[in-house]
Amino acid sequence: MHPEAAPEPGSVHAAYVAERLEEVGRYGAEPLSEHVRRHARDRADRIAYVEGGFRLTWAELDELADRLAAFLVGTGLQPGERVAVCFPDGPVVHALYLAAERAGLVTVGIGPRAGDQELRHLVQVTGARVLVTAPGHRGPGPVARHLVIDPYRPDCPPGATPGGRALGVGEVFLLNSTSGTSGMPKCVVHNQNRWLYFHTQVLRAGDVHAGDVIASLVPAPYGFGLWSAHVTPIVLGATTVLMSRFDAGRAVRLVAEHRATVLAAVTTQFVMMLNAPEFERADLRSLRCLFTGGEAIPYRRAAEFERRTGAAVLNFYGSNETGMLSYTTRRDPQEARLATAGRVSEDMRVRLFEDGRSGCRGPATSLGYYADPAANARLFSPDGWMLTGDLCTVDAEGYLRVVGRASDFIIRGGRNVSAAAVEEQVGSHPSVAMVAAVGVPDEVFGERVCAVVELCAGASLDLPGLTEHLAARGVSKEIWPERLEVVERLPRNAGGKVAKAELRERYRG
Questions:
Q1: Burial letters for 46-84: b for 16+ Cβ neighbours within 10 Å, e otherwise?
Q2: What is the mean pLDDT of the chain?
């Protein structure tokens, strides 16, 4: 491991790091870049990536990654140094990640919608000396070099990657940011080994194979987008359909046009696709499975997606940091697929602490946060287990359920009200397409429960109608919303999740 790329000494539990490094090579010893080399030989003309009218075959991807790697080395970057990549989703961003790997550099993956403040913060924290963006993107800020590459005409001088620099599966190849809803993001440390393990579980969950066409709608720097658009397609040699900017109607058309067999989309995205007029007309029967998550899966809408497409809705429960603790498979019954987070993975040694908070210690986990001992102290238990922010239960059959978030409670009159529980019940109303529950200030109770909803097309809803529905379902009054706000669209953060901090600020009055 390059010393510059390793977590700051003492910032991560030493025994935990030793366990992760002992696993290196257990799930495959061939780095992603070498998989591309192999596909360039064996399936040169097959499409690797497509976005709009721009396509790269495996041979073209391999050649472009070499040219970009030589270009990066030519900037004077030394092995183990960081290169920040803030680039729209598309074939070229994956070529850039591969180029950095071949050049022995650590990619700082920054979401394409990151604001200036976030961009500067991530560059400063990681010490990146070079920033790569598309034309018209942000200026260099605190970096020595700003490289501009056209995402559809990536013109750079011909060149070959210098030998002896490529990263192995156990070395840190990526630092990416958490997609939290408030505050400055932290940088998660990744080696490829964790994602090669994750890939083995993807195959088990969805029976994914080399002949699949994968439509990945999640930005690549984030964990979900990383495995669904970079790791699994590259290992298999599958074709991946991308979108530089999500649009629900266009996403539906792309799945139909390319006869996609696997769809990867956060919950918000697949619900928006269901709501799109195009969904009524499109033939989506090519889909075998939808991998979703990032937020609680609304049972009714997920069941509707299954009924209308024939695809199984699957979920990996976890985070950018943990990778996954549990997952559902095509062989699980619908009730388990849509109402639980799946069976816990034995490899991940899932543990529930006394307060119900879940933790794990296994091969899908990251190496913690980069250069942030304080954040690592909160991420790990004193004996070296990586903690989530979720309160969970595990039943006798091994199915895990998320029953709340340790940090996502509305405190009303001294009582903790689970935002997840409110969202589940409000989301059962047939007029509700999406919901987020937040606390709003109250002089008497401290906070009251506010439900902010997007409605289905042509629907209407008021608070009395919602409470009548909840009463008919027998929902405890403790989690009835006391305020209802109807919005055209819930705000999302860079990772596609609902931006609750923005909602709390909006409805403070």
A1: ebbbbbeebebbbbbbbebbbbbbbbbbebebebbbbbb
A2: 90
The two structure tokens encoding residue 59 = 């041979």
Which of these, 249, 298, 272, lies nearest to 430 by C-alpha position?
Answer: 298
Alpha carbon distance 364, 401 (integer Å)? 19
pLDDT at 3: 32
Other C-beta atoms within 10 Å of 422: how many? 24
Question: Degrees (nearest 5) of the Cα angle 84, 86, 87?
Answer: 135
What are the start-end ranges of the H helices in 172-317?
Answer: 192-206, 223-226, 232-236, 248-258, 267-275, 278-281, 299-309
Hey, which residues does 451 pair with through a beta bridge?
437, 484
253-273 in b/e form (b: 16+ CB < 10 A) is ebbbebebbbbbbbbbbbbbb
The residue with tokens 């900017």 is 245
Distance separating alpha carbons of residues 252 and 255, to the nearest angstrom:
5
Residue whose pair of structure tokens reads 């097959």 in the numeric block: 46
Yes or no: say if 106 and 175 are a contact pair by the CB < 8 Å rule.
yes
DSSP letter assigned to residue 142: S
**Residue 413 pLDDT greater than 70, yes or no:** no
DSSP per residue over 365-383, as a string? ----BTT-HHHHHHHB-TT
pLDDT band for position 220 (cuts 50, 70, 90): confident
Within 8 A by CB and 6+ apart from 117, the residues are: 184
Name the band, by pLDDT with cuts 50, 70 and 90, for residue 489. very high
CATH number of 3-191: 3.40.50.980
Of the candidates 144, 227, 194, 110, the one whose C-alpha atom is nearest the C-alpha of residue 386 is 194
The CATH 3.40.50.980 domain(s) of the chain lie at 3-191
Spatial distance between the Cα atoms of 355 and 203, rounded to a whole number of angstroms: 33
Spell out the residues 6+ positions from residue 110 whose beta carbon is closer than 8 angstroms to its own.
84, 85, 86, 118, 119, 122, 176, 177, 221
CB 25 within 8 A of CB 196: no
Q: What integer pLDDT is reported at residue 5 of this predicted model?
A: 40
pLDDT tens-digit series, residues 161-174: 778 899 999 999 99
Domain 198-363 belongs in CATH node 2.40.10.220: no
Q: How far lies 155's CA from each of 67, 126, 135, 321, in Å?
A: 9, 27, 12, 35
- Per-residue pLDDT for 453 more than 90? yes
For 105-128, the pLDDT digits (tens) are 999 999 887 777 778 888 999 999
CATH number for the domain running over 409-506: 3.30.300.30
399 in Cβ contact with 411 (< 8 Å): no
CATH 3.40.50.12780 positions along the chain are 198-363
CB 85, CB 132: distance < 8 Å: yes
Q: Decide if pLDDT at 8 tops 50.
A: no
CB 206 within 8 A of CB 330: yes
